[in-house]
Amino acid sequence: MNEQDVLRRIFRESGKQGSDVVIGPGDDMALLRPEGWTFGSPGGGGGGGVLLAVDQVIEGIHFERPAAGLDAIGHKAIARCLSDVAAMAGRPVASLVSAILPPDMTDDDAMVLFDAMRTVGERFHAPIVGGDLAVHRHPTHPLTCSVTVMGAATGLGVVSRFGAKNGDLVCVTGALGGSLDSGRHLSFQPRVGEAIMLRAVLGERLHAMIDLSDGLGLDASRMLEADSGLQIEIDADRLPLHDGIDWRGGVSDGEDYELLCLVEDGELPERLLECPFTPIGRVVARPAADAPAVVVFDGDARHDVASQGWEHRG
Amino acid sequence: MNEQDVLRRIFRESGKQGSDVVIGPGDDMALLRPEGWTFGSPGGGGGGGVLLAVDQVIEGIHFERPAAGLDAIGHKAIARCLSDVAAMAGRPVASLVSAILPPDMTDDDAMVLFDAMRTVGERFHAPIVGGDLAVHRHPTHPLTCSVTVMGAATGLGVVSRFGAKNGDLVCVTGALGGSLDSGRHLSFQPRVGEAIMLRAVLGERLHAMIDLSDGLGLDASRMLEADSGLQIEIDADRLPLHDGIDWRGGVSDGEDYELLCLVEDGELPERLLECPFTPIGRVVARPAADAPAVVVFDGDARHDVASQGWEHRG
């Protein structure tokens, strides 16, 4: 089973969504504007709404329990969802957690896990407002946490992943690669503040944004709709990489939780808060209908990386 | 581990919630009012906001897979959450689903499950706007679905579970008991329309409401805060029961997904749409600090039923 394919089939069947739904399934978060509601924000401006997304972490797929530690697992469970809020340039409002615990976990273990979730949630102003907890009797049952996060569009408006335009600069926050081996996948800080700053600095020039969860190659390919006629070109030499990582690792290791942005050509900030912001390529017209969606130039070589990444498998 | 106790501990630690949180953990749903937002509704009125709750169904705890059938499981997963919206007298807006599938499920199985969720979601105007799907490799992994539902407070305002007042009538929708044996726990219709109608008919006289998931005794006890000084009295002879069920079954079988309401004394509707609405008792002053929170009068006998119900265990 390919989970992405199944989800696409499921949501294609969904037919027309309700009139409250502005952005439905397929983006980093859904955007809802129920009838009669208004979404003024302290910063002024319109275009607001309720952002919602759900994400789960599962022992044996996203982490190994003894190795990771319960506080790191709790951190990751919430931080992954907050990274979705960042990808929309929203502000976090609240989170909800459902968890299934294996029978060998104690009450104190559960508290360590939830304390870690609560801590990162509160740091990003997304307190846990609801939860459901179950213990499964089967001794091999894995620990699973499903986290829903609600965000609010700021007065600047949200940023979809689907706004690519020919000629856009391709930019990335932070550095890429080696997240799983280094343990960064358990301790990363979601780029919530950086994303709002980007939206403020770049305004309407910020055409599209996604967070890098599965790898630059795969995630970049998800920014181009099938009929876009566009291609994302990445220059291997410009990729900001963690120590000891080559461009292939930067493209395919996954779990970076950095932001990949498509920005109208022009001046760029070099940093957002303490975070580097690096142009790594450009959006161009796809040279042929069957040309790859994402290519990396490495010297004279040209590599199709549209499927380079890590599809989480159990 | 007692999951309810652990959740209480977790949420007690949460300290002050954010300023957006009007109702936090502990009620049927959280209520959020982000700064600057207004919540006008087609029916007019204020007091609105975003309602959120999460709930999960787990193979081996809430259903047995071959017996239940995937379409019934999908129905139950969403309908349980919609019952929470009913308990707040809200209107459903959207739902999000995360699921972990065991390795023996096919793509087509997943589609049957999600089609059932989509169908009940859309029937109640809560389309699925986001999802996360994983397959676990372990052959004994149970099927699990976690569902988050977003609701909107209507212009009439929400109803908390914590509004009990001395002298209130205790009322219940529908009939109770035998849900698990009869299969009703897999096919029930959440009382969304009935709840909004109740709120419209009774107005501010509708002091408190909860949906009956774990059994009348246990759920009624959850409507009284520890320091309320109140007791809920139920008259066994007045309980509306399904065929073949005695009052003990009606109080403790659980999974009824009917609404339990505390209403200021006065005239009551006999029906809501097609659904009976039955007074079954009264809220009184608790005769002693250590008196039970919920009692059933059966002729001359008086039974403590505050712990009568079904705590879902793996």
Can you characterise this structure?
- The structure is a homodimer of 314-residue chains.
- Chain A has 314 residues and is α+β, with helices and mostly antiparallel strands.
- Chain A folds into 2 domains: 18-152, 60s Ribosomal Protein L30, Chain: A; 169-304, Phosphoribosyl-aminoimidazole Synthetase, Chain A, domain 2 (Alpha-Beta Complex).
- Chain A has 9 helices and 15 strands.
- Chain A has helices at residues 3-12, 65-68, 70-87, 107-123, 179-182, 184-187, 192-202, 216-221, 247-252; strands spanning 21-23, 30-32, 37-39, 50-58, 90-101, 128-135, 144-153, 169-173, 206-211, 230-235, 259-263, 271-272, 275-285, 294-298, 301-304.
- In chain A, β1 (21-23) and β2 (30-32) form a beta hairpin.
- Chain A starts with a helix and ends in a 10-residue tail after the last strand.
- At the A-B interface, α1, β3, β4, β5 and α4 of A face α1, β3, β4, β5 and α4 of B.
Work out the oligomeric state of the chains in this entry: homodimer
What is the top-level CATH class of the largest domain in chain A? Alpha Beta
CATH architecture of the largest domain in chain A: Alpha-Beta Complex
Percent range for β-strand residues of chain A: 25-35%
Helices of chain A, by number, come to 9
Measured between the Cα atoms of the first and last residue of chain A, the distance is 11 Å
The largest pleated sheet of chain A is described as:
8 strands, mixed
The helix/strand series of chain A, from N terminus to C terminus, equals HEEEEHHEHEEEHHHEHEHEEEEE
Q: How does the helix and strand content of chain A classify structurally?
A: alpha+beta
